[in-house]
């Protein structure tokens, strides 16, 4: 257990090393990280930021649609990640995911993992901007008065 971050890194590493398919749920963003370490007909595993699923059945349908040449996995393990995506990199979690996928898909998959990481960081920045500006899903506590506003 990492006391600073409240994470059981050993358990997370165990999932990354052993689960065929896992999903990472983030607190700040709606999208999920989906990792399928099984190789398809092209010899590649799968990693992507995906929309949330309302049920396990919906997630299995997603896999059937995006990985049609593979049988459905016996299970999909879910990891809750309560911190920013960059903390995954700082704690070696992202590197562990990259290593697992490159072990089965070769160096070519590293480009995919980097693209997905950048996408996740972009989603987090957009969420932070929305939180600051009172965007969709957020409400501002106070607003700056416009220069044309009359004093109260």
Care to describe what's here?
It is a single chain. The protein has one domain. The protein has five helices and four strands. The protein has helices spanning 9-18, 56-66, 85-90, 93-105, 108-133; strands at 21-26, 32-36, 46-50, 77-81. The mean pLDDT is 89. By secondary structure, it is of the alpha+beta class.
Outline of this structure?
The protein is about 45% helix and about 15% strand.
Features:
152 residues, alpha+beta
Q: What helical percentage do the residues reach?
A: 40-55%
Strand order of the largest sheet: 3-2-1-4
The number of domains = 1
**Average pLDDT reading:** 89
Distance between the termini: 53 Å
- Shape estimate: elongated
Oligomeric composition of the shown chains: single chain
SS content category? alpha+beta
Tell me the fraction of residues in β-strands, as a range: 5-15%
Radius of gyration: 19 Å
> Main beta sheet, described?
4 strands, mixed
Number of helices: 5
Order of helices and strands: HEEEHEHHH
